[in-house]
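Quick check before the chapter quiz. The format below is the same one you will see on the exam, so make sure you can read both the input and the output lines.
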Amino acid sequence: MSHGLTDIDSLCLAVRDRESHRLISEAITAYRGGAFRSAIMSTWIAVAYDIIAKARELAAQGEAAPKVFVDELDVAIEHNAVPKLQRIEGELLKTANEKLLLFAPHEFVAFTRLQEDRNLCAHPAFVLEDELYKPTPDLVRTHIAQALQYLLTHAPLQGKSAVGRFEADILSASFPVDGPDINAFIRSRYLDRAKEVLVTNLIKWLIKSTFGNDRARFQAKEKQIAQTLKEIASVKTAIYDSVVPPFVATWFDAVDDAVLLGLCTLVDSDTRIWSWLSEPVRLRMRRLLATVDVGALTAFSAFDALSSPELSVDLLARFDALDRTAQISIAAENPRPELVSRAIDLYGSSGGWRSAESNGLILVVNYVRFFTSDDIRKILEAAASNDQIWAASGTSGILDRLFDLTLPMISQTHAHWQAFVSARITASRDASEHYAYPSLQQRLAAHGN
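Here is the expected output.
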């Protein structure tokens, strides 16, 4: 591992604590002056101080384990209990790793090596003269760089208080809704400074949050939680891919049937989750999807799992078995590419003017982002052949919106629009009357080929 001086200088500027900055600066000065043993000892002092400073910060936030550690340390300092203080320093890395949750596994190994090298530098009488420890410049630079990268530049965002703050953020009304905003929020607030242990804890909390006894607290937040999990997967892919498969393979075995369908939203965030579940859980899920009532399917957004190739056949079969009212409700609440053809069929079979207008808004306009040019053709043919659609007073406005929203594909859809307009003009007494769709004629003329 090699780091240039400019890397060290840049990292040093990002040190959070003023005293930690002063101490690591002393180590850098010693390194540049060739005092390599002094540099290692100063680096250890900076690390030890920063661990204790972070413990005090976590204790002030209400973390139980850090508070116990800080109280013990303060009592030892007050009574000048040197043996106890020596023991606390000797176990400092273990405490930081196991109780304060400050380190990832590889970081703990790196700081253990630093402590060992510090001991060799600080106790030369403990080794033979011809074995006197002589650290190399590269080794010293590595210790300094790792101290900066792994500890001094980071906030103590590990532990239960961090997960608690994360939970409060998600439950707040201001938490972002769409993917890019969620990504920006969690990166700047958590992930860009997070250690592996925090990311692991957050992933597990997100997966478990809507399946526990307090699930009611997260009602209407399920999709945001699933989207947050998806964004964490994109930012911390290696951690996500190592944590999630074994976790979901066992954890969902203990989840009750009453809430198991909540998995559908998680599967939508990452379709691989379905393959990571145990076979008994998959069998339970399929049985529930086939038998629960429409209310449960809706409450758990079960059709989110249409994104899973393994579940889409089951879900589409269940959708087709529902009555028309339920189909329209589900399609309206869950606009998805997998339901496009069914949404168009439902619109095309509208049985009244008002229902045609309502269906046009929820089954056509809401699905625009999924449409192909052939879908536009089917919609226009359905509208032309059903007088409950073309004769509805609101259809003109709906088709105007459809035209405007699909304008980027006009070169592929122009003939379909022209066929619809021509048929309406032919059927009308006057090309300017409402049912000849004059506003649509104008749009078509403005974008003619």
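If your answer matched, good. The mean pLDDT is 90.
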